[in-house]
Design brief:
Layout (H helix, E strand, L loop, with lengths): L3 H12 L11 E5 L2 E4 L4 E4 L2 H4 L8 H13 L10 H14 L5 E5 L2 H13 L5 E5 L8 H5 L4 H4 L9 E4 L4 H7 L4 E6 L15 H12 L2 E5 L23 E4 L10 E5 L20 H16 L2 H17 L4 E7 L2 E6 L4 H10 L2 E2 L1 E4 L2 E4 L7 H23 L1
Parallel strand pairs: 3-13, 5-6, 5-7, 7-8, 8-9
Antiparallel strand pairs: 1-2, 2-3, 4-10, 9-10, 11-12, 12-15, 14-15
Helix pairs in contact: 3-10, 4-10, 11-13, 12-13
The structure holds pyridoxal-5'-phosphate.
Length: about 400
Amino acid sequence: MTTKNERAQGRWNKTVQLNYGTPSISLAKGSGSVVWDVDGNRYLDFLGGIATTVLGHANPSVVKAVSTQIRELSHVSNFYMHEPVLQLAEKLTGFTGEKSARVFFCNSGAEANEAALKLSRLTGRTRIIALEGGFHGRTTGALALTGQQAKRLPFLPLIKDVKFAPFGDLDSLRRLISRRVAMVIVEPIQGENGVVVPPTDYLKGVRKLCDQFGVLMCVDAVQTGMGRTGSWFGYEYSGITPDIITLAKGLGGGLPLGAMIAVTPQAPAFKPGEHGSTFGGNPVSCAAGLAAISVIEKKKLLSRAKTVGLLIKKEISKIDGVKAVRGEGLLLGILLEDINASTLVEVAKNNGLLLNAPNKGVIRIAPALSITDAQVREFIKKFAQSMALIQKGASK
Ligand code: PLP
């Protein structure tokens, strides 16, 4: 007898583009960090919608905010203001600590980086420096900034005048930077590249070089932001202030929402008509984002992300077959010795645990910041069991 998951696969293959392949399960329901598929199988969700569901699924505050908002006012376009967009802009600019900060709202990370790219053109310069291994999105502008050859190749030529420096290497950046450069774009941690962490003084060094040549520094905090790494944007530990910050993923508390914040007075400002998005900053997504921020603040989830992250690092590092664990807060990359990460993702899924493999040597986890202590213990147990199952199979 075919299962509901298998029937869903058949329907998917007949109707949906296969750019994501054919997923093996169709999810039906979620509560906090647990999800169930259409056949009723339960999974502990340690991918968190790829770092989006900061409070997990069906968080009561987010559900209430979204339901109330959609009953009162749904979408109005950007010809009008509304309270949720004003409040969210006030929150985000407040988090930067800069009075000059101004937000542009959109719907995704790629759009936030497109906005940053266009803003940088208003300096009159065109050259961009991005980092090898970096990921900034799939739209053509964001893809042009993405330092991953396989993703770019089928779509060349992309916009010109983008140079790539090795991530974490200030000497190479120093050789490339000049007064022709409009913007350097950098992730505090390269998430899609396998949770790659730069040297501690790297962001400070990038800031210094940008200042020396009058270049805008854009921090892409799409994956590291909204509390994931234990602070609002993921760069704060470095003591710098970027000129531009881009956000998405966790910003909408599980709903689509992106933002580009021009932080310092050095960053240009869009004039009326220079940029836009029909759905950007819509009331429902902004209400969800505000609710998520309020829960993160009330429950002190920034510091909890840090302590839980440290605990997971310590416990997972002890498991046989784990080479190292890197990352910050609840964005962690688990480096495997001899096991293929995709195999582990499959085995863990069959064992009721959802993980992700950004490449064949690394498992990425990005659970909800609201993950409970019991769920952390369940994760450690299931992860160790799944590793042991593979090792047992290999030794037969
Ligand atoms: N920037 C970073 C750092 C990301 O990790 C991602 C997505 O993974 C993006 C941009 C693109 O975001 P989106 O998929 O919402 O367009």
